[in-house]
């Protein structure tokens, strides 16, 4: 069994470089929109209408309504920049990071009632980096200068089956293998007891080259389409998966090696990609216009900490996150009045996951996020080749974060200004056969 899991991990990790997930601007481990250009342009409001191989992710019940078999390649390159009080006090500009995101999906009709779906695709992630950060006391000679940041990628491989109950109703499910890769570097100022006073020192901890796979997760969905296809409703449920990633640990302080701690070793990080449920509707208001709306709830309150288990005595054994549950409210429209082209536009309002008290520059900004998307689609070769494209901008900011919570040990979360900005292009090429 262990050999089988290793082979699965190797298969998915070999694809991770191509389908690493984009950065979560205000959303824990995931963006408000992902990799399919058509449904990204609709703000991810796909649960009620998705009827191609991308249903493996957005709502597996939608596979039952496919018009034909298809295979698709998705690309969503993203540029993200996170800014904040990276050295504990000053507002610092982070690095602009390029994040690949995308995937491959396919659908094949087995019979009039059953459809098979399959794919490998980005499912989440986080990225931020700060260079030349100094923590500790330069006056006392306990300062430490270096680079730090977060790079987390979550990739899924899915196998789905949908059943068409009748002309209006369908149900479906996706079996998920979830692979996680992470590099997490932490820098902070802490205090040690020097006898007559507390001595401020800089600390850097690295948890690097960590990877792991969870072999059981599910997506379950239901969909309704009216006889005239003017109205649709959908429900998509994602089960929680545990994420355990094994890798290397390293540590350093501005005061040298503190007795009682180890400064290198092996470590296992533990957290979760939590349960999520989406429900949405769409309605054809005229021959040329269709409107979409969807709400997505994610149980991020489940992620109250990230633990680092090790046989070594590590400097930071736990990161206290105390994240909050998240809501995404999605609104979109589609316009058909331009001949072979379809125009799309969407907006997503995302509630903050990170509380101000536990803010960290290398994770999501502790504020609501706004996502704006415009896109278009057309077809070629007698509608056998479909091409969709979209452009996305999202931003989250909070100018007056209070901070103060203990993220790790006695290192408090910094107060001040936090913001994140991201740009993404989405492109999907789909072949129908």
Automatic annotation (TrEMBL):
The membrane topology term of the UniProt record is: Multi-pass membrane protein
Q: Which InterPro entries match?
A: OMPP1/FadL/TodX (IPR005017)
Check the UniProt entry and state the signal peptide residues, or none.
1-26
**What is the first-listed, main subcellular location in coarse terms?**
membrane
Q: Does the keyword rRNA-binding apply?
A: no
Cellular location(s):
Cell outer membrane
Alphabetized UniProt keyword annotations: Cell outer membrane, Membrane, Signal, Transmembrane, Transmembrane beta strand
Pfam families the record matches: Toluene_X (PF03349)
Entry similarity comment:
Belongs to the OmpP1/FadL family.
Family matches, as PANTHER family: OUTER MEMBRANE PROTEIN NMB0088-RELATED (PTHR35093)
Q: What is this protein called?
A: Outer membrane protein transport protein
Organism listed in the record: Endozoicomonas euniceicola
């Amino acid at each position: 069994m262990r050999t089988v899991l290793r082979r699965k991990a190797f298969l998915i990790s070999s694809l991770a470089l191509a389908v690493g997930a984009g950065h979560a601007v205000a959303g824990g481990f995931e963006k408000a929109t992902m990799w399919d250009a058509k449904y990204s342009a609709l703000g991810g409001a796909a649960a009620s209408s998705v009827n191609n191989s991308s249903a493996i992710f957005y709502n597996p019940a939608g596979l039952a309504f496919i018009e034909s078999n298809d295979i698709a390649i998705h690309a969503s390159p993203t540029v993200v920049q996170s800014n904040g009080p990276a050295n504990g006090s000053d507002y610092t500009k982070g690095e602009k990071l390029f994040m690949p995101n995308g995937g491959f999906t396919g659908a094949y009709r087995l019979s009039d009632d059953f459809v098979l779906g399959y794919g490998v695709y980005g499912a989440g992630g986080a990225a931020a980096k700060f260079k030349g950060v100094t923590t500790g006391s330069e006056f006392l000679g306990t300062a430490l200068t270096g680079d730090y940041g977060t790079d987390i990628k979550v990739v899924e491989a899915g196998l789905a089956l949908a059943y068409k109950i009748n002309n209006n109703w369908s149900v479906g499910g996706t079996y998920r293998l979830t692979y996680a890769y992470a590099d997490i570097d932490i820098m902070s100022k802490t205090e040690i007891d020097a006898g007559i006073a507390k001595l401020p020192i800089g600390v850097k901890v690295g948890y690097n080259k960590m990877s792991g796979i969870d072999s059981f997760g599910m997506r379950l969905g239901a969909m309704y389409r009216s006889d005239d296809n003017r109205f649709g409703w959908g429900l998509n449920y994602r089960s929680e998966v545990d994420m355990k990633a094994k890798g290397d640990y390293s540590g350093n302080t501005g005061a040298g090696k503190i007795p009682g701690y180890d400064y290198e070793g092996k470590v296992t990080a533990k957290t979760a990609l939590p349960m999520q449920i989406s429900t949405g509707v769409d309605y054809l208001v005229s021959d040329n216009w269709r409107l979409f709306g969807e709400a997505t709830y994610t149980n991020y309150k489940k992620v109250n900490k990230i633990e680092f288990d090790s046989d070594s005595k590590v400097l930071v054994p736990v990161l206290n996150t105390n994240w909050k549950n998240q809501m995404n409210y999605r609104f979109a429209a589609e316009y058909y009045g331009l001949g072979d082209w379809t125009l799309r536009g969407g907006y997503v309002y995302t509630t903050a996951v990170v509380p101000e008290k536990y803010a960290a520059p290398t994770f999501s900004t502790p504020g609501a996020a706004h996502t704006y998307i415009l896109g278009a689609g057309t077809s070629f070769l007698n509608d056998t080749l479909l091409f969709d494209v979209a452009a996305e901008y999202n931003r989250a900011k909070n100018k007056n974060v209070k901070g103060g919570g203990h993220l790790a040990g006695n290192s408090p979360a910094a107060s001040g200004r936090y913001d994140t900005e991201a740009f993404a292009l989405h492109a999907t090429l789909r072949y129908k056969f």
